[in-house]
């Protein structure tokens, strides 16, 4: 039957032959996957023109009916998303062969990037991601220091009195404890502002050394230019650099994108950062359990954006925010778990699946209101 690695490399060989026969490669879906696919195809000398197709149109506005031989790569991370994309591809490109991104991504990581981790375990992780047998998303927070002072920072970093950088060993211990139970599809390194961390290059490599993490990104606010050591660490781990565009505040955005291109680091502007919402004051709303459960089920952030910070995992950024303000009650305690002490799979599942998330929802507006992006508070 072969190993997990052999399974993915066999897939890649078949897909590679089909791609070489194509006049045009279609990256279906403007997700966090497509910048990585662009770099993987470039690194593999798969040189057919590559275009992103999203919401029924190409990113460059070219027409669908061109008579070109196309190959479609589905850039959705979730199985349901890819299934929907596959139906769309059959409608828009009925004669084009189609595949997901896992085999191409794996070949790029081990043969082009040469990510330093257990290759067989990484292949096993990617196949688990394909079947959604993973924690879908975590934000791995390395520092509470930030050079901005955003009034509505969802992580509450502006209110933490004791700023800190998480020791590498403690962050590695937390991630290893978590991934020993379940692999992670998508890990986003953030802060604060991670580019303020003098150990960032080592921290990136530490994340990349964990084969139970499939897809690695780093979020920056676009105000600082990464140094060469950090860029090389990104290159050597296959990390994607994600720029949160805060308009005039993100003054280094274009320089960052240019440097990422020079180092062959996938890079993209994170457009969701252009729309902020407010959770409201941190106080009880007095809703019923049923109302709070309904709010939890509809929340865009709860359980879909787990936060790992200073030895704990939090079920949502509102819990992390409450922790930053010193709130310590049943709502907070039931939505965080210490990763540096022994815990059970049952305790972890309670956080991952948000079994007590409704308790925290009573301290949140529902629905949330739209607010100005990255509004700054005076310091001091």
Would you list the SSEs in sequence order as H and E?
HEHEEEHEHHEHEHEHEHEEHEEHHEHHE
Give the radius of gyration: 21 Å
Strand content: 15-25%
Q: In which order are the strands of the major sheet placed?
A: 10-9-8-7-6-12-13-14
- Strand tally, please? 15
Please state the oligomeric state of the protein chains shown.
single chain
Structure description:
The structure is a single chain. It is built from 14 helices and 15 strands. It has 380 residues and is an alpha/beta fold. The chain folds into two domains: 4-107, Rossmann fold (3-Layer(aba) Sandwich); 134-380, TIM Barrel (Alpha-Beta Barrel). The strands form three sheets. The chain has an eight-stranded mixed β-sheet. α1 (4-20) crosses α4 (102-113). The longest helix is centred in the N-terminal third of the chain and has 17 residues, at 4-20. The protein is globular and about 60 Å long.
Question: Which secondary structure elements does this structure contain, and how are they paired or packed?
Answer:
Blueprint: H1 4-20, E1 24-28, H2 34-43, E2 50-54, E3 57-58, E4 70-74, H3 79-92, E5 98-100, H4 102-113, H5 119-130, E6 135-141, H6 168-181, E7 184-190, H7 200-208, E8 213-220, H8 228-237, E9 240-244, H9 253-262, E10 267-270, E11 276-278, H10 289-298, E12 306-309, E13 312-314, H11 317-324, H12 330-333, E14 336-338, H13 345-352, H14 357-361, E15 369-371
Parallel strand pairs: 1-2, 1-4, 4-5, 6-7, 6-12, 7-8, 8-9, 9-10
Antiparallel strand pairs: 2-3, 11-15, 12-13, 13-14
């Amino acid at each position: 039957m072969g190993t997990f690695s052999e399974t993915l490399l066999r897939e890649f060989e078949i897909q590679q032959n089909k791609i070489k026969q194509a006049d045009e490669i279609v990256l279906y879906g403007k997700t966090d996957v497509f910048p990585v696919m662009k770099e993987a195809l470039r690194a593999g000398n798969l040189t057919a023109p590559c275009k992103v197709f999203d919401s029924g149109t190409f990113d460059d506005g070219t027409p669908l009916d061109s008579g070109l031989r196309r190959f479609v790569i589905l850039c959705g991370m979730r199985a349901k998303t890819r299934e929907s994309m596959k139906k769309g591809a059959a409608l828009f490109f009925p004669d084009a062969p189609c595949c997901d991104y896992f085999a191409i991504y794996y070949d790029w990581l081990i043969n082009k990037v040469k990510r330093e981790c257990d290759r067989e375990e990484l292949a096993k992780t990617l196949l688990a991601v394909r079947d959604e047998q993973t924690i879908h998303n975590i934000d791995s927070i390395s520092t509470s220091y930030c050079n901005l002072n955003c009034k509505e920072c969802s992580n509450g970093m502006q209110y933490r009195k004791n700023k800190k950088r998480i020791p590498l060993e403690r962050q590695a211990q937390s991630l290893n404890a978590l991934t020993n139970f379940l692999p992670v599809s998508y890990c986003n390194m953030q802060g604060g502002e991670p580019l303020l961390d003098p150990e960032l290059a080592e921290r990136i490599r530490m994340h990349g050394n964990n084969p139970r993490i499939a897809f690695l990104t780093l979020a920056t606010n676009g105000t600082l230019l990464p140094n060469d050591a950090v860029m090389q660490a990104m290159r050597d781990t296959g990390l994607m650099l994600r720029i949160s565009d805060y308009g005039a505040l993100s003054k280094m955005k274009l320089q960052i994108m240019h440097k990422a291109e020079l180092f062959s680091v996938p890079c993209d502007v994170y457009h969701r950062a252009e729309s902020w919402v407010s959770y409201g004051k941190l106080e009880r709303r007095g809703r019923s359990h049923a109302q709070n459960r309904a709010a939890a089920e509809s929340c865009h952030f709860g359980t879909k954006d787990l936060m790992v910070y200073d030895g704990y995992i939090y079920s949502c950024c509102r819990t992390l925010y409450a922790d930053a303000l010193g709130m310590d009650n049943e709502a907070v305690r039931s939505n965080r778990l210490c990763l540096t002490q022994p815990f059970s799979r049952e305790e972890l599942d309670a956080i991952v699946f948000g079994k007590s998330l409704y308790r925290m929802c009573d301290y949140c507006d529902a629905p949330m209101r739209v607010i100005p992006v990255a509004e700054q508070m005076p310091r001091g």
